[in-house]
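Two folds, back to back.
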Amino acid sequence: MNTMNAHLNRRQLLTHSARFLGAATGVALLGAHAPGWAQSVTQRAASAADRILVLIELKGGNDGLNTVVPYANPQYAAMRPSLAIKSDEVLKIDSRVGLHPELKALLPLWEKNELAVVQGVGYPQPNLSHFRSIEIWESASKSNETLDDGWVARAMKAGYGATPFTAEGVLIGMNDFGPLAGARAVSLNNPEAFVNQARFASAMPTTGNAALRHLLQVENNISQAAAGLRGERFNFVTPFAQGAFGNSVRAAAQVVASQRASVGTGQGGVPVITLSLGSFDTHQNQLGTHANLMRQLGEGMAALKGALTELNAWDRTVVMTFSEFGRRARQNNSNGTDHGTSAPHFVAGGAVRGGLYGQEPDFSRLDAAQNLFYTTDFRQLYATVAQDWWGVKPELVVRGRFDAVNFLRT
């Protein structure tokens, strides 16, 4: 063991630690700052420490045109003769656009001005590969560069993360680093196993080996995170949908419930929770598959609102969707849609200034592949969260200057 660790670099060591701990606790460590990270940031005010961001990945590339439907534009129906949502079925939110009919669970949020719909979200020189494009979204990189750290991790390093956090993020039902790459984050593949079995403690001896000391510190961080999330289960009145995504939403609510004692004390719990729904890669027979996913998304976000309201946490939570890309404007020959570019995204919460943001899709202006041009850079959404929700310099998070969208009241 000592010989092996003497030759491990930091990346290998973290990977080894994740596998070692995950087998014992139902938890995997996805990333961590170098030792001493906690001393490099300034402690935040209690109000900032209490804030939560829930990120929902629409995995596979969601069809934005059938999510936020430009029903009043005749070109929409012309380009989608069998896929266009009929005007009389759309949940109209203004005179030109509306929501997919299976998103009806989101209407109460819209009516209470707690749902922002940001249209035309994308980035320059879009990449239509699933793997590369999601990397761009998760790291907030340019399309021609590759970054190791996620955008959330950079926000933590910029001053939002500090010692009082139980962990900087929790990924539920996900294994990859994502936006939390480089942060002190844990993955709950099995939330109950994590809560019930996270008393694992390493029996490995301490030595003068720096790599081994770092491994032990990583394990100690995991144990602290487990202790913070362990606790009595909260019995919600809010119903959760059956299935994987409904279970993930329930687990996210339980993570928030486990942190109730820390609210207002200046000791933060878990500031970021990520969930995943999909696959949205609807190349064929899209209508039924997409409708089912829309229903799950709407019901899941509504359940989050209900559960977090029970915990008095809705006003300090922002829920935001993201996806690697949208779909092509014109349907294909298999009653589906191929990889596209820009798409709308949702932001919800008690502190959200609801409404329509950005520009409606322009079908008269398509690229050579018949894809829509983006009108809102996705890094504008991240910059808004960094500046208005976390109070950190957005330039340090998105690595440049991007105008805020102003969908937050605080």
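---
second:
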Amino acid sequence: MWVGWLDDRPDCASATWTSYGINNVTLLATIPEARRRGYGEALTWRAAQADPSLPAMLFSSDDGRPIYDRMGFLSLTRLTLWHRARGGAGGG
């Protein structure tokens, strides 16, 4: 796990699970005020190279996709997750 700091406050974070022959980059986040400055990309590079002998993979939001495209990640599939708040139609 890595945390990017600016002016004594955490602005971004990333993590990697290295197993089964791959760097699984996960938990990438940058606070809104720090976006578009390269901090998240820097931590993505660090996480993707946790074990430099292995390839890296990640799941991306729509916002992150242009960054990962530029970094050379290859899009393999699209995944859509759905959320419904409790108490909506159908009970629950």
